[in-house]
Amino acid sequence: MRLKARLAAPLILAALPAFAQAQDATGPKSPCGGDFGAWVEGVKAEAAAMGHASDTVNAFFSGVRPDQAVLQADRAQGVFQRDFVDFSRRLISENRIANGRANAGKYGATFDRIEAEYGVPRGVLLAFWAFETDYGAVQGDFNTVNALATLAHDCRRPELFRPQLLAAVELYAQGGINPASTTGAWAGEIGQVQMLPRDIIENGMDGDGDGRVDLKGSARDALLSGGKMLSHLGWRANEPWLQEITVPESMDWSQTGLDTEKTVSEWQALGVAGRNGNLGPAGLPASVLLPMGKDGPAFLAYPNFRVYFEWNQSLVYVTTAAYFANRLNGAPVYDAGNAASGLSGEQMVRLQEKLQARGHDAGGADGILGEMTRQAVQAEQQRLGLPADAWPTPALLEAL
């Protein structure tokens, strides 16, 4: 869970769980690279120093090997270069909506328990369940230990994956995984809502009462565990997360974006209104989110929306997941508007390079329109006297 980019059989395979990404922002790099066998011996020594018996450690690592297919999947993130309308239309289908509503009924008692204990609405979990594994149908066939070891050995993000590999040793010691046979996503996630080993240790729940946590075979276990994790990540009960809105043409576009918050009543005073139904409580803080600029879809993002980034850090993914939760709860299709053409992946890289050359931190030149790139775009739009709606266009690229 939270390591996504998974668009295989309609899913998305791996954008990195946000909770985990937070770990790689600070601190020294974990040991990585070099001879794989020698590197494994170092991890084994660290696991033993943590208190694991040598027999346990040796058995866990006995068959470990690097998997080149994992590295290939890790480098293939082009799906996140799509804009919100394209991305959401690819992930959300009538069949997926129908299956979601059927599962809401089938597991109604479990969702009732999750809502009572953790305050997480069923639509929210259903959306993640759908996008992660198509309601359990496509859970991934990568050997979990090999995947974690490969990514921990690779020097791109070892500070994320080495702790997860060590957590997998702990999970093995508890009887939670089998190093030889446990499979899942290429990034080491396991089960129907795709949870990393540390998540499973901290949030794994027995939802069907059989005395064990089975996130692969038991939807009830997976859903209850996912609800507990969202709660621990900061989900606020009985509050909205994302709502479609209408925005007046007179809006100061520089006030839009997730880095600007106002109360609902303040947004209402500026002419923001719910497209379908009333906005949230007047004193609730919120941000106006325009994923494709002032002429595209418009949403009001509430505090719970930020919890989505603890699951996945891709803006287009979390916006789609949050919107899909609304659809599963009965909301209509959003108004796609008439947004100006965006940039290709190659053009986005060029834009990010230009933004960074001007002193902005665009989060790297990866061709993906993330929040840091959007903030830099907005600043340059203001400087150039353009509508500062954070949507990069070919005209902006040319102007820079």
Automatic annotation (TrEMBL):
Record's keyword terms, sorted: Signal
GO MF entries: peptidoglycan lytic transglycosylase activity
Superkingdom field: Bacteria
Kinase listed as a keyword: no
Domain Transglycosylase SLT: 36-325
Coiled-coil blocks: none
Database matches in InterPro entries: Lysozyme-like_dom_sf, MltB-like, MltB_2, Peptidoglycan-bd-like, PGBD-like_sf, PGBDSf, SLT_2
PANTHER family associated with the record: LYTIC MUREIN TRANSGLYCOSYLASE, MEMBRANE-BOUND LYTIC MUREIN TRANSGLYCOSYLASE B
Residues of the signal peptide: 1-20
Keyword Signal: yes
Domain Peptidoglycan binding-like: 344-400
Source organism phylogeny: Bacteria, Pseudomonadati, Pseudomonadota, Alphaproteobacteria, Rhodobacterales
BP GO terms, sorted: peptidoglycan catabolic process
Protein name in the entry: Membrane-bound lytic murein transglycosylase B
Pfam family, one: SLT_2
